[in-house]
From TrEMBL, chain B:
Gene3D superfamilies: 3.40.50.2300. InterPro entries: CheY-like_superfamily, Sig_transdc_resp-reg_receiver, ST_Response_Regulator. This is Response regulator. PROSITE patterns: RESPONSE_REGULATORY. Keywords: Phosphoprotein. It comes from Cellulomonas chengniuliangii. The modification 4-aspartylphosphate is found at D54. Coiled coil: none annotated. It holds the Pfam family Response_reg. Residues 3-119 form the Response regulatory domain.
């Protein structure tokens, strides 16, 4: 993956897609699954999400952009159950899903921010079918598989 | 029994912190606050032995909460549990009077590593 240099108040930091992948893997391993093999890069054609749910955090300051997670709504439900230590068939309400999925985006976003920028703000996590469009360029789009289900991590740099 | 106040706008995160405290062997009495303002009110009402706070919260952030507490004369032991663990953030936390900053994702061990010295 190509490294993208981000100028930050005269200090250059390289920002590598493999670092984002590493963050995602660590977050999942610590918060969701004990088994690190459950989150891997997707192999083969990536399916379109039929009932998508997006969780994102916006970063502002010397670097402006967004870290977003995209998956199927059902997958977000299972993710929330895993995070909350619930049984696979236990009902989980929408509020808890938004909270849990948002928190995963918060932790991934916070860790990406630590790589990127020296000063700036991490916004509060939001969850919706889709985030409001943000003019900018996608720096990294990681198409991953969580327990065999499609899961995308997208880092976007806002247009200046 | 020690009393801890956990401040985080994410109920999920509060549950995870509580779970991790238990896993770390800390069977404390827990109070929860969903934002900095509620946490400040909770400390004023009944000062706990320790505050574990997120950084980003609506109403009042964790760093604002800490500064308000110190300004009001509370020397309550305070630690951050936050999704950012950058050196800059750690420095700001330390300067404001926090005893530690635990970055998410965390483990029971990382809790023990920072809390044990505080208990001593």
């Amino acid at each position: 993956m190509t490294a993208v240099r981000v100028a930050t108040e005269g200090v250059r930091r390289t920002f590598d897609g493999s670092q984002v992948q590493s963050i995602a893997e660590q977050v999942f391993a610590a918060m969701i699954d004990d088994d690190p093999s459950t989150l891997v890069l997707w192999s083969g054609a990536f399916p379109e999400l039929a009932d998508p749910l997006e969780a994102w955090v916006d970063l502002t300051g010397s670097w402006t952009g967004r870290v977003a997670l995209n998956t199927e709504r059902a997958t977000a439900h299972d993710l929330s159950r895993a995070l909350l230590g619930m049984a696979p068939d236990e009902p989980v309400d929408d509020g808890d899903v938004m909270d849990a999925f948002g928190e995963v985006a918060n932790v991934v976003g916070g860790n990406v921010k630590s790589l990127l920028t020296e000063v700036g703000d991490l916004g509060l996590p939001q969850v919706a079918q889709a985030a409001p469009p943000m003019a900018g360029s996608v720096l990294h789009e990681l198409r991953m598989s969580w327990r065999g289900r499609p899961f995308v991590v997208v880092v976007t740099a806002a247009a200046e | 029994m020690l009393r801890v106040l956990i401040a985080d706008d994410s109920r999920v995160m509060r549950q995870i912190v509580i779970r991790t405290l238990r896993q770390a062997g800390y069977d404390w009495s827990v109070t929860e606050a969903p934002d900095g303002a509620a946490a400040l009110a909770a400390v004023r009402a009944d000062e706990p032995d320790l505050v574990l706070s997120d950084w980003n919260m609506p109403e009042m952030t964790g760093i604002e909460l800490l500064r308000e507490l110190r300004a009001a004369g509370f020397s309550t032991p305070f630690g951050f549990v936050t999704s950012e663990g950058s050196p800059e953030m750690r420095q700001a936390a330390e300067e404001a009077g926090a005893l530690f900053l635990i970055a998410k994702p965390f483990t029971a061990e990382s809790f023990r590593d920072v809390i044990e010295p505080v208990l001593a």
